[in-house]
Amino acid sequence: MKTLMTLAFALFATTAVAEGTHSGDHGDMEMSMGTITKIDTQWNRLTIDHGPLANLEMDAMTMVFEVADPAMLEGLSEGQEVEFTADRVKGKLTVTEIMSE
Questions:
Q1: Which of 7, 15, 52, 94 could cross-link 66 (Cys pair, CB 3.0–4.6 Å)?
Q2: pLDDT tens for residues 58-97?
Q3: Residue 11 has pLDDT above 90, yes or no
Q4: Whole-angstrom Cα distance, residue 72 to residue 78?
Q5: How far apart are CA 34 and CA 36, in angstroms?
Q6: Residue 13's closest CA among 73, 95, 74?
Q7: Quick check: helix, strand or coil at residue 2?
Q8: The pTM is what?
Q9: How many CB atoms lie within 10 A of CB 74?
Q10: pLDDT tens for residues 31-49?
Q11: What region does 89 belong to: left with phi over 0, alpha with psi -120 to 50, or beta?
């Protein structure tokens, strides 16, 4: 069963768009595949070894992302494969949606 954590982001994105801090429309973004290599609950960050991120014009690599909502970290574990969407939110690379098996 897949878990999709978007409710909190929907509220977050509405605020971000209203404040002019959101760089795109999530409706047209494709999800990317990746493997979580580190979870940092203190700073609400995920390190993900991921494939290309077309919307951010980034090649495959391992990088650290903020999460739009700390609740997104619940149920995730290192080594877990995920599908996710990332965007620039207030200038920071942020996971805005995440799905896991």
A1: 94
A2: 999 999 999 999 999 999 999 999 999 999 999 999 999 9
A3: no
A4: 14
A5: 7
A6: 95
A7: coil
A8: 0.73
A9: 10
A10: 999 999 999 999 999 999 9
A11: beta
Half-sphere exposure of 36 (CA within 13 A, CB side): 25
Kindly report the three-state secondary structure assignment for every residue of 9-77: HHHHHHHHHHCCCECCCHHHCCCEEEEEEEEECCCCEEEEEECCEHHHCECCEEEEEEECCHHHHCCCC
3-state secondary structure of 8: helix
43 token code pair: 């700073």
Which of left, alpha, beta for 41 (phi over 0: left; psi -120 to 50: alpha)?
alpha
Residues in the chain: 101
The rounded distance, in Å, linking the Cα atoms of 100 and 81 is 7
Residue 23 phi, psi dihedral angles, 5° rounding:
-95, -5
